[in-house]
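Problem 12. The chain below contains 375 residues. Write out its predicted structure in token notation.
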Amino acid sequence: MHSSPFSSSSSSSFSSETSTPLTAHQSLLFPNLPDDVALQCIARVPHFYHSDLSLVSKSWRSLLRSPIFFSTRNRLNCTQQFLFINVRIHGSSFKWFALDHTPSNPQNPRNLSPVPPIPSQAIGSAFAVIGPRIYVLGGSVNDIPSSTVWIFDTRFSRWEIGPKMRVGREFAAAGVLNGKIYVMGGCLVDSWARSTNWAEVFDPLLGSWAPVPSPAEVREKWMHGSAVLEEKFYAMADRGGVVYDPFEASWGFVPTELDMGWRGRAAVVDGVLYNYDYLGKIKGYDVKEGIWKELKGVQKDLPKFLCGATMANVGGRLSVVWEEKGTGKQMEISCAEVEVRKDSNGGLWGSIVWSQVILVIPAGSSIVHCLAVGF
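Solution.
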């Protein structure tokens, strides 16, 4: 049995971001083996087994929580993808879970782990991921849009407060380009400050937000979806949507075809935006062709209608999460991982890699968001 790797956060001698490499005076990880070699051996072990490894010794437990351990995993290309799912229970509380998409046997059930609760809950937050960190941006607290930013460091399983946005937002759009978080909308432009900061950008290296100049005609309030396509940030508003190119610092409006077919929470895989429509079909929008195409090959393996469907790109595959009616006063959340590809004629095809119920929660709950993190 494996304990949850996300359920708690423990401090250690290696937990600081400024920790130095292992030195000779520290306890040996393996007898008669240099610590730097032992580090590379342990770093190759899949994350699923880290909770067991932490029981070996205090030195191992400290190592598994250290920045040098995660940087070594990244350098060896041993990081793994996790799908993080945020659900709202009975419309009042929010819970986070992490799903490991890389078990040793594809036929084995996926391991779902609870994540420590966010210290302050808000409705209508936006989400972004940079490296191993999840950013929860704003949202409404007691019906007041918040500028608060919470950051969950998946490596150490802990929440920390981040630099506040320049204005409070709810139901804003967020996306990551060139290692920076862009956020727009979710605020009334009824003052000079909110108008100037309708769009802003966060640079994690500087640790601060800066306004992104925007023309008045693009400043819609509510955003229902966003994605990064072809190095541009697409944000869908109540009416139409806008496109921002940070490299050219230019604005535009989304094509009518994209606007007509985009329904909320979508994901981009290999340059194609995938979306679940009202007719019960998964469709993909190819920016280069400017048209929507049905994803074929999955109709027989998925329910006809996917209630509350949301999607994420997890390791180059399309992960689809949806709600299903359970037994009694319960609701089931199911997930399917889909391998997607284009045929020689440009058609979109998918094949189900695995599909299963991953969580049972009280009826009346709902999926808020899902996103992929590698660490």
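Discussion. The first strand starts at residue 81 and ends at 89. Students who got a different answer should revisit the alignment rule from Section 12.3.
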